[in-house]
Each structure stands twice: as C-alpha cells, then as structure tokens.
Amino acid sequence: LPCYGARSFREGDLCNMPGITIVGSGSFAPGTPVTNDQLSRVMDTDDAWIQKRTGIKQRHFAAEGQGISDLAFEAAKRAIDNARIDPKEIDYIVMGTMTPDFVFPGSGGLLGAKLGIPGVPALDIRQQCVAMPFAFQVADGLVASGAAKTVLVIGGEAHAGFMPWEDWDLLYGDGSGPPPSEKAKERATRHRALAILFGDGAGALVMRKHEVPGHGLIGCEIHSDGNLAKQIYIEGGGFRRRPYWSPTMFEREEHIPAMQGKELFKSAVTKLPEVVRSICKKHGVALSDVDTFVAHQANDRINEAVRETLGIPKEKVPSNIARYGNTSGGTIAILMDELLREKRVKKGDLLCFLALGAGLHWGAALMRL
Hints:
- The chain is an alpha/beta fold and 369 residues long.
- It has 13 helices and 13 strands.
- The strands form four sheets. Strands 1-7-6-4-5 form a five-stranded mixed beta sheet, sandwiched between helices.
- Helix 4 (107-114) links the parallel strand 4 and strand 5 (122-125).
- The two termini are 25 Å apart.
C-alpha cells in the first residue's frame, strides 16, 4: 500500500515518494504585548516569579469580539503572500484550534470565507498543543491520496476568553486606574499558575508535496490517551449536561481550565523524549542528524528538561516563548515562521517537531525541508 501520512513502511518506490513540505509561512499576534509587570496589576505575581517558572516575559491577547478566525486570517494572508500563490490555489484547509469562534461551526470554514475561497473544504482538528504533528499527517495524507495539492495548515488560539480576571483595562495603559477588588484579585491569583502561561496568536503554513524523493515529511508518530484528560481540561460547557451551559458553571469557575501542573510536567518530560527517540529510530535517524528541534512552546522548563534528557545542544532547540507565552496550537507554526524568515532553518535541513498537550495528545514529526 502507499505510505500515506506517517510513511512508517519503507519498502518499495511508493514509500520513497516525497512528503509534504512548507512553501510559505506567516504568523500574527494581536494587539500590544502584555508584560509580566502588567499582569501583576490584576493578580499577586511579579516578573521574576513568572520568568523563573516559565521563561515568559510577555504575551498578546485577542480583543473583545476578535476570534481565532480573525487571527488566522492575518497569519494566512502572510503565508499565502510568502508562498507567492493566489488564495484560490489552496484546495484544503486544516485548522487546529481549541478556542473556536463558536461552539459550532468550526473556525476553518469561517477562515476560508474571509480568504475569499468559500467552498474549499475546511477540516477543524482538536489536538490542542499538538495541532501541528497531527495536521502534518492529515495534510500529507490528503496530498498523497490526490485529494489536495495545496493545503493551508493553521494553528492558533484566542485564550483571552478563559482568563480569570475581568479588569482588562488595568492591563493596558499606565495602570493608573482603580485597582481590582479584593475578591477579583484573589480569584485571579488562585488561577495564576495557569493564567501566566497563555497568550493569543496564530501561525499559518502553506504546504505542498516536495519535489525531491525522500524529502518533505518523512514520518509522524502521534498518540492519544484519554485516561490522562484531566491533567488539563475545561469542565464547563460540555454536552453531558442539560443545558450544556448555565450561570452556575461560571460561578464555579468551570470555564477556566483545570490543570494538574506537576502531573502534566511529568507527562511532558517523560513522553516527549520517548516519542522523539522512537520516531528517529523508526526512520534510521540519529539525534545528531537533526538540524533543529521545533518544540511546542509550553514552558521553557519543560523544553530544557526534554533537551537535557535527549542530550541535544541548546542551540538546536530554539525558543520564542518569552515573547508570546503558550499559544497552544499556534506555537510551532509561529516559531517555524520566525525560523524561516530569519533564515535560521533552510532548504535541506532535517527538522524534528515535538509537542504534548491536552487530551492527552503527544507526538513528533520528521521533515526535511
């Protein structure tokens, strides 16, 4: 059989078919950045505390009324321009987000309409922080099967809607307004371990089949385990209840993600080295052969622990979390856009993408540009 998607089997000419590769990239972060000092206006925290635990210095938030399809539209325009194609050349959209504009429909179709390509199929996937490895496999299968030639892959989030404060005006300007109430500050502080992590933004990749056999996407190894779902999840708004949303859910703060931080950290620093070693072994690649490891930007402490476990040189694991925070499904695409534009990765480089996120989902992908 043809080796669609993961290309796990190497026998035969079909398995040496080129995989998909990136022919254009773009990214977008909304508004002005919010620094750690600005966060201290609405919760009990400070810059040193946040940087020590996460490596984050600032993040961006979507404005009221600004949805992920709006952020994705800006990123997609830049990727399409970078690829030097007409939007009408896109014949499939794969949209990875856990923060859609609406409960339904998905945001991929909204993006297609905004790009002026209504009718182009749009697939929304819900693998959260692992959007890119899953999206790569899906896009590669679409191209290998002949269902598509040019795929627009999007990852991004608008996390602002679950932030645990309501005093948005205090985050901006000179902070001279009245302070939050004691109750509001206590509430935000109670959720600060989660709230300091997340930011908003989107990354877009235009993908086509590589021209050189054996190049492009070499393989993906991806996993899911619902037994670990409660390490990070949102309780409210699910359709197990009638109605699926009620005022009491908001009062119980069930719209804010619940996170078991220590358990999630342990999962990440255990499963990510395992999956990287596994995919490299499967495809006969030594860790030293990889030019750049493009990791999900969840927390610098996680990526540093993974890097040390694998024995990878620090310069091979770039980071931009200091400027964006964790944009979940957007981190890998945003980082990849920066690496390409700054020429820190180039044609012919071997890349390893790796991520773990809510689900739990985790995985890695190998690609030669």
